[in-house]
């Protein structure tokens, strides 16, 4: 039936038919400097599978081939058909001005109906630019994929959950990584790795000067299984470090902070969790001296177990906490740390 239908269709109709029914998903895979696949990209692939389209992964930078091999040999993604790599050192910094022309060029190919990126700093920078050049409205921070054109996302700091039906021919999506379980370990021997060519030059004269990063041996905040977060009640930077670091060390946890803590200089802004910071969903989230402002809750309320330590019994954080300890945090935290060491 399918064969005979295609035979009688005019060429133009036939082309439109295949564009609607045989399109695939283009997924941007991020990696670390050592070439390993980022955890957020593993969640991205899990989300892309729910679109029920064949998936083409795109990896950029000088370590692209190493990342592609790691993805192919270490993980299993049912719908992944091929990986296209663009090996160019200028793409190592993931400047949106360099990446955007490449993605726009790829998406002008009618093979792709969906473009998905993780809701990382790179994804947040690239997706709006791609949307503007293609004249398509992106759907950001998707937490549920109901079908290839219907998506769920939080709005108003997570107070409202919005269901969106996107009629656009090309759908641009950013995925909240914490909402999707990463793909499982395995292997994908049948997946082809292709080398891309002709990287379009950037129209903007942008130069990467240098990178200033806060070095830490702790787990990466957005992918950590345990997170210890400090609020404004910790008063100063010394107290923040001396009180929370031992507890984080015992739990092998990442350290986070509220916006008030960051604004008051208690810690680096890379630790900020919340609506204007990072979104986390660890197995264990310990909030120390955190009041629970709605902007902060938007970044951590999906945590599996939430423990709140605060001397204010009316603090909003207790409304979302699974366990609450009311009292002097300067006494509770050292005692808790000592008991966990035993």
Automatic annotation (TrEMBL):
SMART domains: ETF (SM00893). Keywords: Electron transport, FAD, Flavoprotein, Mitochondrion, Transport. This is Probable electron transfer flavoprotein subunit alpha. CDD domains: ETF_alpha. PANTHER family: ELECTRON TRANSFER FLAVOPROTEIN ALPHA (PTHR43153), ELECTRON TRANSFER FLAVOPROTEIN SUBUNIT ALPHA, MITOCHONDRIAL (PTHR43153:SF1). It is found in: Mitochondrion matrix. One of its GO terms (molecular function) is electron transfer activity. GO terms for cellular component: mitochondrial matrix. Binds 1 FAD per dimer. The electron transfer flavoprotein serves as a specific electron acceptor for several dehydrogenases, including five acyl-CoA dehydrogenases, glutaryl-CoA and sarcosine dehydrogenase. It transfers the electrons to the main mitochondrial respiratory chain via ETF-ubiquinone oxidoreductase (ETF dehydrogenase). Coiled coil: none annotated. Heterodimer of an alpha and a beta subunit. The keyword Plastid does not apply. One of its GO terms (biological process) is fatty acid beta-oxidation using acyl-CoA dehydrogenase. FAD binds at residues 232, 258-259, 272-276, 289-296, 310. Its cofactor is FAD. Belongs to the ETF alpha-subunit/FixB family. The gene is YPR004C.
